[in-house]
């Protein structure tokens, strides 16, 4: 895609700091470095996001996550990792090319905050909505 920054990185038109590449994906350090070693895993084929991906495209991308995540944790001496994938602006997606954030975690004050807020929703009603036939 013409205006996609990740497509330009993949094509070598924009520099990046790559940490992994094969025929299907490329992984490079995120320029924001939320934590030290924050890496983006990107499929070489342009797809807007996971919601627009085929099951095969998603499976191929996610099949690369465990090995790369473990290498980053080991080499960066991290205590854990957040693996984050955003879809559409409302969910925090800012580059509209599928990608996965691999964010090494070092401690409570390492710069990344991920919080879940509890709500008192009717779980049975939500399940009914999700499973109902159209």
UniProtKB/TrEMBL annotation:
Name of the protein described by the UniProt record: HIT domain-containing protein
Residues annotated as the enzyme's active site: 99 (tele-amp-histidine intermediate)
Any Pfam family matching the protein: HIT
Molecular function as annotated in GO: catalytic activity
Single GO biological process annotation from the record: nucleotide metabolic process
Top-level lineage group: Bacteria
Intervals of motif Histidine triad motif: 97-101
Chain ranges of the HIT domain: 5-113
Gene3D superfamilies in the cross-refs: HIT-like
């Amino acid at each position: 895609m013409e205006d996609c920054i990740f497509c330009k990185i993949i094509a070598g038109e924009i520099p990046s700091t790559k940490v992994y590449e094969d025929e299907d994906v490329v992984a490079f350090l995120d320029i924001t470095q939320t934590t030290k070693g924050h890496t983006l895993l990107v499929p070489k084929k342009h797809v807007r996001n996971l919601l627009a991906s085929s099951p095969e495209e998603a499976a191929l991308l996610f099949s690369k996550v465990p090995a790369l995540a473990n290498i980053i944790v080991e080499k960066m001496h991290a205590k854990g990792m957040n693996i984050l994938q955003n879809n559409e602006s409302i969910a925090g997606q800012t580059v509209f090319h599928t990608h996965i954030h691999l964010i090494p975690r070092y401690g409570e004050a390492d710069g990344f905050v991920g919080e879940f807020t509890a709500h008192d929703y009717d779980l049975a009603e939500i399940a009914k909505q999700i499973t109902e036939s159209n």
